[in-house]
Structures are given as C-alpha cells and as structure tokens.
C-alpha cells in the first residue's frame, strides 16, 4: 500500500482508497538554497503537462527522512505543483500490486543525490503502467551512466527516465535504457544509456519523455511471418501441395507487400511460412495459432480477422471490405414488342375514338341526317392515324365536335412520336437492386455455398438462404449466377475481377446491391509476448492513415481491373441516358417502317393482279352470255 507522509495545509485525495489525507510541509531552508532546483522543477512541470491528462496525480517518492537536499527538492516541487493546481501525493515505497490503477494517469518522481544511490531503488517493484522520472543531483554524468548500465536489465522495458542536472544550472539532460537485438545471437540484450531529450529552463527539445522501448532494429535477424491465402491479400502457386509451416518464396499480394515494408522498418530478414486457412470460412481453422503462441511465428497475415480472442495481439485495422449481393443484369434489346409495351397507355385514345364515333352518329340522327356507323368508324380511324380526313360537319355542334377530335388526334400524334423518339434514342437502364430487402424480394434464385451461407444471424436472411441453390466455391457460385440470372454473396476483393471479366461491350453484366450485408475489417495477428507488438501496431497505423494499405490492396487486385470494373459499371448505368438531351434518328432505326411499307406494296400488287384477272373473267363471261 501507499504509505503517506502528513504535511500541513495541502489537502490530497487518495484516488485508490477514497480517503482524504492532510499533509504537512517538510522543513524549508532559505530561498537561496531552494532556487537550486528551480530549473529542474520547471522541467518536471513541463513533463507533467505533456504526460498527465484527466485527473492527474504526481506521486513523489520520499526515501530518506534527514536528507536536506531531498527535502529542499520536494518542498520546491510541491510549491510548483500547487501553483499549477496539479494534485500530488508523497509515498515512502512502491507497491505494484495494490495501486496499479493509480499508475495509469500519474507521474512518479524520485530524487537521488549521488549516482551511488541509484541501486537503492527496488526497480523490481516498478509497474509496467508506471511512468517513473528519477532526478539525479550528481553532476558526474559519466559515472552515473556506468551505474545505469548495471541496472539496465531490470528497467530496459519499463517507462523509467533519468534526468541529470548539468554543470550548467539551466540545462537538464534526460537518459533512458533501451533493449536491443544482438545480431549474432538474435537474442535481446541491454543497450547503453541513450540521451533522449534536453530541458532548458523548463522547455523540452522534443516530446520524447517515456519512449516505446521495444527493439526496433532486428539487425537482420529472422522476422517469421505465417501467410494464408486469400485474394488479393496473398496468392501462392501450387498452394495445394503446401503443408502447414512450409517455407514459401513465390508469393504475391497486398499483405506480402505490407510485410516487406514492416520488415524493412525492423531491419530484419523476412521469412514467409504457409499456414492453412479456409478462404470461405476462416473461423474453422486454428491449427496455426500454436505456432504463434510458442514463438515459431512472429506474426500472421493473409486476410485474417480479429476472431482469435485475447491469446494473440492484433495489428489494428488496415483495410476493410464489404460482403454484398451481386446479381446478373442485361439491357433489353430494341424490339417492336418493347415498343408496344411503351405504348401501353394508348387505350385512352381508343376510348376517345369510340366515344367520338358514337356521339357523331347520335348527333347526325338528331339532326335527321343519314349516317352509317361503319363508315363513321372508318373515317374516324383514318383521321386518328393521319390517313384520311373526317366526314364533313354540317352544323355548329358537328363542327365543334370535329374540332375537339382533331385536337385529340394531334395529341395522339405527339404521344406516339415521343414514344418512338425515346424508343429509338434512349436505352433504358436495367432493373437494379439497392437494398438487401430488394434483393430478397426479387424472386431470383440465390446460389450460396452450403457450409458458409449462414455467416450472419439475421432471421430474414436465414429464411432466404434456406431457399438458395447450392454451389461449391466462390467461383462456382459466380458462374451459376451468370448462367441462370441469379444472385450470390461475394467479397469485395473478388467482385472487381468478376465484374470486369464478365463485361460485354464495356458494359457490366454483374452489378452489386448498394447496401452491404456485412463489412469485415482485416487485421494481422502478432505473438502476444513479442517485443515488436507496439512498434508493429504503430507502423501499421501510419501505413493505414497514409492510405498505403488501401493502395496496395487495390494494386493487388489490379489497378486496370478495378478501373475497367468501375468503367463497366458506370457505362451500364450512365450510358442508358446518353441521348437524354437529344440524338439524331437515322434511317436504320426506322428500317421496320420501310419493311412494313414494302410488305404493304407487295400485298397491294397481289390484290391488283388478282383484280385484273377477275375483271377479265367477268368480261369473258359477259361475252359468252
């Protein structure tokens, strides 16, 4: 437990036990002696400002009762901390079992008068969460560095920093000890104390106070990485012949390129080993995890997810990709059947045509004029299609009725013309699905692999998946979708290749639903006790923030493939409206009209010839009679 020294007016809250302890100030000497530590206490205030955040605490380790210099240092430090409203607490010893939570946002400070006193601190009790700043009053820096080397192994991984008072009162140098990898034995050893920062009059040269101490230079020692296969993260030739933990040299993919960057950062020798993982179901294979735990592998990659619990560490998200529905589409060809489908509202004009004919006959009968219903229907139809004129109106009401009917004929002509124009110049877009609900309500057959199709626990999706047809792999499911106008679920990494390969005339034949079924986030795994964990995660975060991991992911798929897929997708949608502003109609587009005219001419010629023969026969019969 923390052991508190009581001093007067300052009230301190013990954040661990919830008690309030009253402390009394230690005996002070004159102001001249107190100013001896002015520069170094200013440095501690600056360090506190950078290291402490919400609800900070400075823990001051009191080691001796009658050490005058230590008392002066502590008194002046307390005055400065109080001036800046920084809570402080004085302790007599360190206990890393009872007070772990206090270390999370606290700064522990100890004062050492001479370099020989360094060994009096029990560094075995230093908690990994603690930030321990040791102030050394001795100006014989070279001797102190020798003493630091003696205790190097006990603090090489802890956040322990030493701050030396220089011969010049205003300059204070900060040192710490780092571990390093021996290039000959590839084992971790202690490096000599390293100067990391300088504080002059309370101003720090840089932000390095408690730097990450894990080795960053492997000195060409092996960096062993397990690699599974999943396009575009990693692909290997003849992977079917490989066994678990086989050495691999011929490999491609975005994860391999990322590992080359990290390997260069660590100055290591990259060694790739094969690990088996089912591409369609990564949850089923965990045989390679013991190789990570026992140290045979430093890290694993190849399209891996955060699915292995806390037995390993993770690199952090470096790329994400969607899982979504894809479906087959084909633009409708131009045909007269499609044209008639576009003219499905023409029945309204037929109603007006019949109504006009009946009203015309009734008006003529009312006016006492002779009228023929068949003749009226024939003339009205001819006027409607622009082939003949209407019957001559003889009264004002007949003229008014005829005028209204002619106006309707003009509207019909405009309507048919617009439909012809749209039919001949604007290609309609295919029917698309935006949401997952649209896909499942489409009535199409889904092709899904039996052992992997229940990857989410959504009740509606499960019901739809129960009705799906079976396929054996991503490739087989995709081919059946293409052949049978169906649906399937695909990873974004596979989608671009599939869409680009199946494009016809630079237009996509495979489209995706806008909504993702699921978004997966890929993370590499690292051995939990590896000294490379923190720096590995830091490098991966920088690569991700710089967009390098996404760029490598795209390059592994193929920049030209992605560009072709996006272009084909755009063409399928946007080209449908390419003539929206107006396009010229050629004779070729009206060829059907000429064919109909030629057919009508042939029929007319046949009828004409038949009439000639019939007239001749009638004349012949007349002469005989």
Automatic annotation (TrEMBL):
Compartment list: Cell membrane
Short name of any one Pfam family annotated for the protein: Lig_chan
InterPro entries recorded: Insect_Ionotropic_Sensory_Rcpt (IPR052192), Iontro_rcpt_C (IPR001320)
UniProt topology in membrane: Multi-pass membrane protein
Domain (Ionotropic glutamate receptor C-terminal): residue spans on this chain: 369-601
GO cellular component, one term: plasma membrane
Membrane-spanning intervals of the chain: 346-366, 403-424, 594-614
Annotated keywords: Cell membrane, Glycoprotein, Membrane, Receptor, Transmembrane, Transmembrane helix
Annotated GO biological process: detection of stimulus involved in sensory perception
GO molecular function: ligand-gated monoatomic ion channel activity
The UniProt record lists the keyword Transcription regulation: no
UniProt record similarity statement: Belongs to the glutamate-gated ion channel (TC 1.A.10.1) family.
Protein name, entry field: Ionotropic glutamate receptor C-terminal domain-containing protein
Organism: Helicoverpa armigera
């Amino acid at each position: 437990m923390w052991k508190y020294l009581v001093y007067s007016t300052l009230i301190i809250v013990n954040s661990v036990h919830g008690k309030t302890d009253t402390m009394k100030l230690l005996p002070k000497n004159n102001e001249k002696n107190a100013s001896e530590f002015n520069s170094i206490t200013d440095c501690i205030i600056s360090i506190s400002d950078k290291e402490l955040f919400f609800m900070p605490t400075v823990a001051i380790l009191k080691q001796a009762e009658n050490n005058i210099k230590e008392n002066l240092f502590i008194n002046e430090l307390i005055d400065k901390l109080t001036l800046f409203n920084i809570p402080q607490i004085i302790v007599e010893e360190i206990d890393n079992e009872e007070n772990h939570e206090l270390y999370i946002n606290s700064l522990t400070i100890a004062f050492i008068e001479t370099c020989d006193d360094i060994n009096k601190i029990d560094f075995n009790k230093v908690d990994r969460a603690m930030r321990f700043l040791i102030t050394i009053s001795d100006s014989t820096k070279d001797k102190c560095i020798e003493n630091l080397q003696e205790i190097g192994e006990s603090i090489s991984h802890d956040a322990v920093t030493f701050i030396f008072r220089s011969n010049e009162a205003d300059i204070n140098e900060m040192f710490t000890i780092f571990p390093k990898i021996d290039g000959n034995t590839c084992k971790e050893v202690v490096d000599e104390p390293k100067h990391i920062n300088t504080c002059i009059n309370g101003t720090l040269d840089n932000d390095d106070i408690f730097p990450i101490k894990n080795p960053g230079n492997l000195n060409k020692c092996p960096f062993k990485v397990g690699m599974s296969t999943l396009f575009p993260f990693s692909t290997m030739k003849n992977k079917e012949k490989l066994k678990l933990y086989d050495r691999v040299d011929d490999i491609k993919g975005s994860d391999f390129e990322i590992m080359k960057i990290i390997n260069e950062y660590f100055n290591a020798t990259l060694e790739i080993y094969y690990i088996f993982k089912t591409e369609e179901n990564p949850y089923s294979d965990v045989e390679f995890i013991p190789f990570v735990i026992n140290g045979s592998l430093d890290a694993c990659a190849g399209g891996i997810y955060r699915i292995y619990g806390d037995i390993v560490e993770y690199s952090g998200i470096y790329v994400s990709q969607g899982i979504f529905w894809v479906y087959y589409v084909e633009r409708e060809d131009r045909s007269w059947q499609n044209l008639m489908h576009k003219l499905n509202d023409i029945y309204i004009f037929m109603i007006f045509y019949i109504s006009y004919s009946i009203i015309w006959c009734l008006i003529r009968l009312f006016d006492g004029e002779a009228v023929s219903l068949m003749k009226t229907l024939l003339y009205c139809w001819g006027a409607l299609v622009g082939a003949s004129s209407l019957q001559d109106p003889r009264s004002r009401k007949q003229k008014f009725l005829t005028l209204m009917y002619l106006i309707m004929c003009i509207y019909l002509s405009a309507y048919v013309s617009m439909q012809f124009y749209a039919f001949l110049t604007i290609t309609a877009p295919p029917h698309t699905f935006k949401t997952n609900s649209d896909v499942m309500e489409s009535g199409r057959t889904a092709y899904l692999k039996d052992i992997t199709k229940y990857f989410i626990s959504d009740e509606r999706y499960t019901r739809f998946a129960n009705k799906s047809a079976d396929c054996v792999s991503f490739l087989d499911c995709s081919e059946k979708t293409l052949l049978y106008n169906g649906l399937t679920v695909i990873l974004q990494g596979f989608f671009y290749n599939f869409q680009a390969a199946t494009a016809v005339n630079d237009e996509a034949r495979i489209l995706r639903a806008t909504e993702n079924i699921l978004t997966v986030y890929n993370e590499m795994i690292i051995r939990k006790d590896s000294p490379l964990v923190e720096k590995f995660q830091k490098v991966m975060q920088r690569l991700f923030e710089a967009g390098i991991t996404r760029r490598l992911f795209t390059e592994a798929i193929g920049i030209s493939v992605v560009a072709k897929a996006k272009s084909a997708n755009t063409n399928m949608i946007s080209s449908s409206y390419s003539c929206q502003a107006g396009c010229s109609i050629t004779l070729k587009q009206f060829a059907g009209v000429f064919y109909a005219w030629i057919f009508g001419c042939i029929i007319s010629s046949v009828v004409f010839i038949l009439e000639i023969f019939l007239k001749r026969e009638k004349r012949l019969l007349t002469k005989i009679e």
